Structure formats: structure tokens, C-alpha cells
Amino acid sequence: MIRVLLVDDDPLVRSALSLMLGGQRDLEVVGEASDGAQALRQVDALRPDVVLMDIRMPVMSGLDATRRLHQQPDPPHVVVLTTFDADDHVVGAVAAGADGFLLKDTPPDQIVDAIRKVAAGEAMLSASATRSLLSRLRNDPSVNRLRHAEERLALLTERELEVAVTVGRGLSNAEIAAELYLSVPTVKAHVSRLLGKLGCANRVQVAMCVHDAGLV
Fold it and tell me: Which fold does the domain 2-136 belong to in CATH?
């Protein structure tokens, strides 16, 4: 079972999500929180696998809560679920360590699919969020992203670089395994190692690095 924590300041949203997820055999809603601070306490108490996190909440925002969660030694996966897809929100969520970014009007089956994918160590960004993120990165003159990305990728072995490029293309572990003629456990091991070498919190940040280097 994939244990899910719902974090949103609107009780109607939490109720709708709970009802939707409750019909899935492999998902279990283990708790709810109405703000980021409460979410941190619930994570400590309930140890969920995935947190569905709103952005705008009282006391502590979803981005601040996500950032604090990813400072923990064994954080849950976080999917940001919001009504806003502004560039700042997308970039902020990825920088904070979110594994996914979806809008609240995303079809229920896609939300369920996103939870399953991030629980398996993959990533899920809505199409609009992906466009916002890549547009922001292409137009960001503040740092030499190309040089920095190339320096980080130089730390990888040839096989790890191949895996990183396929992650940047948005492939799942199973798709990477098929393309590179590897087993899924081997792909998972490679992804885990390259996350550490690149200093990335998740696959989304790996994809950003690969895009910055111009490899996809």
C-alpha cells in the first residue's frame, strides 16, 4: 500500500481527494493537514510515502514545508497540487524538492497515476508546469547554467550519464531498462547513484541538469 497524506487548507478539497483516493486498492489516505506546519507534524507521526501538498496555506506554505521535509534523512515524496501554475511556483516547488507538480483540475486518474509514479521514485509534472519550468530555465541569465551542468555531469560514469539523459527525456524506469537493455533494479541503482553525485533531490532536478547541459 502507498500511504498518502493530504495537505490543503480547504476541507472540501481534502474530502474530495480522500474520496477519490479511497477507491484505489493500492492507496491509503493515512491523514490530513490544513497547513504546512501541521503537515510536518503529521509526517513525523504517520510516515506517509507520498504527500499531496497545496502551495498557499496559512501558518506555513507548502513550499516551505516541502523544503523542510527534504532536509530530513528519509523524506516522503511530495506532489504539489495547486490551482496556480505560475513560473515562480513551478520553479520554487522543484527547487524545494517536490517530485511532482499538478494542477487541481488534473483528471483524477492522472493524479492517481502521479502518486504511483512518485512513490516508485519517478517524477510527474503537468504539461503546463513543464513548459513553465523549461521556459524559465532558458531565459534565466543569472548563472552560467550550461557550464555548471557540464561540471556536475562530468562526475558521472558513461552508463550513469546515459541513464541521466533518459531521465531528462522523461522515461520511466521500465522504459529506461528496455532502451538500455538493463534490468529495472539496475536502473534504480544507477538513478540512486547519479542523484547522489549530482546533488539532486529527485528526478526532476536531474532532468533540469540534463536540459541545462543541452543533452535533451
Answer: Rossmann fold (3.40.50)
Three-class SS state of 193:
helix
The reply to whether CATH 1.10.10.10 applies to domain 143-212 is yes
Per-residue pLDDT, 132: 60
* The predicted structure's pLDDT at residue 142: 47
Contact yes or no for 5/42 (Cβ under 8 A): yes
Q: Which residues of the chain have pLDDT under 70?
A: 84-89, 91, 126-144
Query: Strand pairing of 27-33 and 77-82?
Result: unpaired
Asked whether 102 and 126 are in contact (CB, 8 A), the reply is yes
Name the pairing type of β-strands 100-103 and 77-82: parallel
pLDDT of residue 74: 84
Q: What is the dihedral of CA 68, 204, 87, 18, to 10 degrees?
A: -60
| Domain boundaries of the chain, sorted by first residue | 2-136, 143-212
- Please state, in angstroms and rounded to a whole number, the distance separating the CA atoms of residues 175 and 171: 6
pLDDT at 164 (0 to 100): 92
Residue 99: predicted pLDDT:
84
CA pair distance 115, 28, nearest whole angstrom: 11
In this structure, the dihedral spanned by the alpha carbons of residues 147, 148, 151 and 156, taken in order and rounded to 10 degrees, is -120
